[in-house]
Amino acid sequence: MTNFSKKVLNLTKQIPKGKITTYKQLAAAAGNPQASRAAGNALNKNTRPIIIPCHRVIKSTGKVGGYSGGKEKKLALLKKEGIPIKEGRIINLKHHLHKFKKSDA
DNA sequence: AGTAAGGCGGGCA
DNA sequence: GTGCCCGCCTTAC
Residue A81: is its pLDDT beyond 80? Predict the structure, then answer.
């Protein structure tokens, strides 16, 4: 558990319902914009999955990306939260994107 | 403790 | 839109 992963998890669990974010944004908010892959990894190997809505985190390309419990599960959760998805990709991504505050980390 | 491989992504060609 | 390469973190040997 590094400081980076701790920030990632901390930021992720702060994402409100109906809002989503990208691994890139998450990694950037955590302090490493280039550690996009590591951000997803932190969510995948997170220690407290219960408090961490990793399903609200998607790829910057608009694709939902992967999911430990199955991406279909992730899609269902997102749609239930009010995020429209078409063929595995977010429709109004930037309209649902969550902006992290500087005080979040 | 050190080295090598893997993973839920991002960017460029 | 697809394919390839890169960089970062975590885990296993």
Answer: yes
A92 CA vs B3 C1’ separation (Å) = 44
Angle at which helix A36-44 crosses helix A23-30, to 10 degrees, equals: 100
CATH of domain A3-99: 1.10.10.10
How is residue A67 written in tokens? 């999911």
Footprint of strand B on the protein (CB under 7 A): A 22-24, 36-41, 43-44, 46, 54, 57, 59-61, 63, 65-68
Euclidean distance between CA atoms A92 and A56, whole angstroms: 14
Domain parsing of chain A, residue ranges: 3-99
pLDDT digits over A41-52, tens only? 999 887 677 678
* Confidence (pLDDT) at A23: 95
More confident residue, A102 or A65: A65
